[in-house]
Amino acid sequence: MVATVYSDNTVVAMAALSVATAGILSTFPIFWSLPAALLGGAAAAAGIALINSVGNLAGFASPYLVGAIKDATGSTANGIYLLAASLVAGALLVVARRTPGT
Fold first, then answer.
1. Contact 69, 78 (CB under 8 A)
2. What is the rounded CA–CA span in Å between residue 36 and residue 45?
3. What would the 3-class secondary structure string for 34-93 be?
4. Contact 47, 32 (CB under 8 A)
5. What number of other Cβ atoms are within 10 A of residue 47's Cβ?
6. How far is CA 1 from the centre of its chain?
7. Distance CA 6, CA 25 (A)
8. 37-52: per-residue pLDDT in tens?
9. CA distance 62 to 79
10. For residues 49 and 32, is the Cβ–Cβ distance under 8 A?
């Protein structure tokens, strides 16, 4: 969100996007271990396949959604806010999920 607020300052926007990217990429190893930790056998494989499928669909649909929001509002900031909100919602879902036995 910092990148949208300071979109007129290239250095600040790039620094914010770099920090955000590093934060997102640092969660991948932990995230991809969840299906195997929470599910067993074929269910773990199905969980990984489901995550991969949803991720691929999001990668296809997100640019169109951001473009549609930009066309409707005249700004890409609202599309970025939507993407940020979906990341926060995903993080809350993972945090809210209790592991078996706890």
1. yes
2. 8
3. HHHHHCCCHHHHHHHHHHHHHHHHHHHHHHHHHHHHHHHHCCCHHHHHHHHHHHHHHHHH
4. no
5. 15
6. 14
7. 23
8. 888 888 888 988 988 8
9. 9
10. no
- pLDDT of res. 75: 85
| Residue 11 scores a pLDDT above 90 | yes
Domain ranges of the chain: 2-96
Dist CA 4 CA 16 (whole Å): 9
Q: What six digits make up the tokens of 1?
A: 């969100």
Q: Per the structure block, which two tokens stand in for 64? A: 């169109």
Q: Enter the pTM of the model.
A: 0.66
What is the DSSP secondary structure assignment for residue 9, as one 8-state letter? -
Task: Bin 40: left if φ > 0, else alpha if -120 < ψ < 50, else beta.
Answer: beta
End-to-end CA distance of the chain: 35
